[in-house]
Amino acid sequence: MSPLILIAFLLVFLVLTYQFGRFHILRKAGLQKKKPHSLPGYYGTYIALFCGIPSLCIFGLWIGLEPHIVEFLLLNEIPSDLKSLPPGELNLLLNEIKNIAQKSEYVSNANPVLISAAERYNDLHKISMIALAILITALCVGILAFAFNKIQLDLKARPIVEKCIQFILVIASIIAIITTIGIVLSLLFESIRFFNIVSPFEFLFGITWSPQTALRDDQVGASGTFGAIPIFAGTLLITLIAMVVSVPVGLLSATYMAEYASPKVRAVVKPLLEILAGIPTVVYGFFAALTIGPAFRGFGEQIGIGIASESALVAGLVMGVMIIPFVSSLSDDVINAVPQSLRDGAYALGATKSETVRQVVLPAALHGIVGAVLLAISRAIGETMIVVMAAGLAANLTANPFEAVTTVTVQIVTLLVGDQEFDSAKTLAAFALGLVLFLVTLALNILALIAVRRYREEYE
Questions:
Q1: What is the 3-state secondary structure (H, E, C) of 57-68?
Q2: Is residue 119 packed enough to be buried (19+ CB in 10 Å), middle (13-18) or exposed (0-12)?
Q3: Is 314 within the bounds of a domain?
Q4: Separation between Cα atoms, residue 244 and residue 315, nearest integer Å
Q5: pLDDT per position in the chain (460 positions), as tens?
């Protein structure tokens, strides 16, 4: 029995217990001709929570500890000569046993001892899942019987259920906060290790990025050069091009849909525009690399301008198209939130439609528009796939949009591809770039909040 099947079984059981709780309280209310304290749904949720929370906790704990217990039991059964292997080789042996165990047919030339160990590993895993299923079933049945006797018409199910849900929401919030703190600390600690090897001044203000490891000590850049200015410049150049495309188009389309389009046109145009946000970024990357890049290069050859197939212009243009729905959707919501009384007052003073939009509606919605633009900039800075496929990997310090450049996210991907040693400056540079990217996006989000608060105006 796989964990997914067990989870599906548990969810079905919880739905049945919910229905059972509702039916039980309604039946008891009909027999006693008395109204229960809470709505029937709260009694069903009461039983479902009593059964589901302990079961899910045990399931998570079991799934977390089961691999270690199975490995411990397996190591006690393998031959003594294999037990005496160094820790590193022993881990490799366990991984090989797991790889053999995951295959439907064992490799014919594999060691018979490993095949036997893989069969034992599968047996232990099956026993573990069966034991978990029996334990969860017994626990649910026991809790169901307890809750069955607990449910009475005077039971205050609603306050109990609401407190449980509030507790679950608090736990979810704490998990999200802890996850964020863990991400920040992991970036910070690894970045500190990097800056112990490379000077922060060189990283932040150097103009040469060459993180590769040389084969000989006498080679140029044997220790690598980590000047990140070309990367930051490439990121800003592509982001600027994307904003030049997305902000005017997104804002104008939002203004049209909110102020000029009829309800029928809006019902068609808005979903079609927001489809752009659902297209995977790798599809945009393919479109840029196979269509836009060659088209721009051919056009440049015809007019005598050298445009690389992988250029900042191509990546920025396609990225701008991808970001249009972010600007358009957010700006449209903000414009629609402007009170109709402001428009009516402008019309009463003799203003035309365009004058009302330019001088009343857009200024009133400025705080939301600024926030939407800053969030779109954060989205552009963090984009990876389009830049990987359309802008190239060359760390060029240039302001020419027709040349190939690279960005922070692309270099992070490049540095962490393949087998890496996390004690070298080359690999640790990815964490330093990630920390800079995190701080930049955090600053943009803070600016968005400040802009929203500063330009927000209350209208009655």
A1: HHHHHHHHHHHH
A2: middle
A3: yes
A4: 13
A5: 677 787 888 888 888 888 877 777 777 777 667 777 777 778 888 888 888 888 888 888 888 888 878 777 777 777 776 666 676 677 777 777 777 777 655 455 566 777 777 777 778 888 888 888 888 888 888 877 777 777 777 777 788 888 888 888 899 899 989 998 988 888 888 888 888 888 888 888 888 887 765 444 555 445 567 888 888 888 888 889 999 999 999 999 999 888 888 888 888 888 888 787 788 888 888 888 888 888 888 888 888 787 777 888 888 898 888 888 888 888 888 888 888 888 888 888 888 888 888 888 888 888 888 888 888 888 888 887 788 777 777 777 888 888 888 888 888 888 877 656 667 777 888 888 888 888 888 887 787 777 777 766 544 4
Q: Which residues contact 46 (CB under 8 A, 6 or more apart)?
A: 21, 147, 151, 155, 157, 160, 161
Among residues 426, 453, 295, 434, the alpha carbon closest in space to that of 370 is found at 453
Residue tagged 């109204």 (tokens): 35
CB 250 within 8 A of CB 326: yes
In a domain, 307, yes or no: yes
Its pTM stands at 0.70
How far apart, in whole angstroms, are the C-alpha atoms of residue 307 and residue 296? 7
Cα 436–Cα 441–Cα 444 angle in degrees, nearest 5: 125
* In a shared domain, residues 414 and 268: yes
Give residue 417's domain range.
225-455
CATH number of the domain to which 268 belongs: 1.10.3720.10
Both tokens of 400, joined, read 């020419």
- The Cα–Cα gap between 410 and 454 comes to 35
Judge whether 311 lies within some domain. yes
